[in-house]
Amino acid sequence: MQWVYYHEELRPLDSLPGGQPDSGLLYGRGLFETMRVRDGRVPWLAQHLERLLCSARRLGLPVVHSSDRLAQLVEQTVSANRVGQGAVRLTLTDSLLIQCRPLPYREEDYRQGWRLGLAPWQRSAADPLLQHKTTACWNNLLAREQARRAGRQEVLWLNTQGQVCEGSISNIFVLQEGVLRTPPVQCGLLPGVARARLLELARREGLEVREEVIYPEQLYRAQEVWLTNALLLLLPAVSLEERPLGSGRPGPLAARFYSLLLRQDAFRTDA
Ligand SMILES: Cc1ncc(COP(=O)(O)O)c(C=O)c1O
């Protein structure tokens, strides 16, 4: 019999689930989704599960449950915790973990906007994992912790060509003269669920939308710079390395598009 030391105890290897240590624990081999709960429902659940299952197929991570079953389990966990407004996270490794937590953002984040710092190292746009929401995200955590120690709330990742990628927990958008730009996934970034919803919404609202390469200098000349993720929805970025972005204050369109996203979020749209 093989013995392993795990959770403060020596135990037989075959007593672990699946008879093996979880490969998420061993190698960071896992995917996750962090979803917004609104009025006890998860409005973008279908989009999150689609991304998760698509990544699992591409990366060869086995999934035991169907998409419908996963949706059911997420909804059951939300309901067991009686979450009205909050977040639910699904983590898939060799096993499945679903947990709820409160929304981490405050009203003053939106009122003041976030200050950004440059990430301490550059990314390779060719890294195949960047386009997936994997549990191997320690680089993002380290970069954000470093930014926080410098009094900033988020980092900006550049790739080795000096092009803008995204934040450590968010996608980035630049608004200039009626054109909304965001970098294409080929620059090395996660195709965010909120990013897709905003692109769709902005088009519908008559903005010209372009997925094109962005350099950091363009951020300073922008009217507004926005960050998106499924929990934040949309939050203004006001400075980069202490240099103001646009006016250096949250702009009027950020508030408008935040409300539109929130409204879209309130009614389940599976478009
Ligand atoms: C690195 C990174 N980019 C972008 C996003 C935004 O993705 P989503 O809109 O799906 O939350 C996240 C979300 O946490 C992220 O971790």
The termini sit apart by: 53 Å
The CATH architecture category of the largest domain equals Alpha-Beta Barrel
Q: Low-confidence parts, pLDDT < 50 over ≥5 residues?
A: 267-271
Strand residues, percent:
25-35%
User: Which structural class is indicated by helix and strand composition?
Assistant: alpha+beta
Largest sheet: 9 strands, mixed
Count of discrete structural domains: 2
Series of H and E elements = EEHEHHEEHEHEEEEHEHEEEH
| Helix fraction bin | 25-40%
Query: What is the CATH class of the largest domain?
Result: Alpha Beta
Shape: globular
Rg result: 20 Å
Return the CATH topology of the largest domain.
D-amino Acid Aminotransferase, Chain A, domain 2
| Number of helical regions | 8
Question: In total, how many beta strands?
Answer: 14
Mean pLDDT: 95
Structure notes:
This protein has helices at 23-27, 45-59, 67-80, 107-112, 138-149, 193-204, 216-221, 252-266, and strands at 3-6, 9-12, 31-37, 86-92, 96-101, 114-118, 154-158, 164-166, 171-176, 179-182, 208-211, 224-229, 233-240, 243-244. By secondary structure, the chain is of the alpha+beta class. The strands form three sheets. Strands 6, 7, 8, 9, 10, 11, 12, 13 and 14 form a nine-stranded mixed beta sheet that branches. The chain has a three-stranded antiparallel beta sheet with strand order 3-4-5, covered by helices on one side. Strands 1-2 form a two-stranded antiparallel sheet. The longest helix has 15 residues, at 45-59. It starts with a strand and ends in a 5-residue tail after the last helix. Residues 34, 140, 166, 168-171, 190, 192-195, 228-230 line the site of pyridoxal-5'-phosphate.
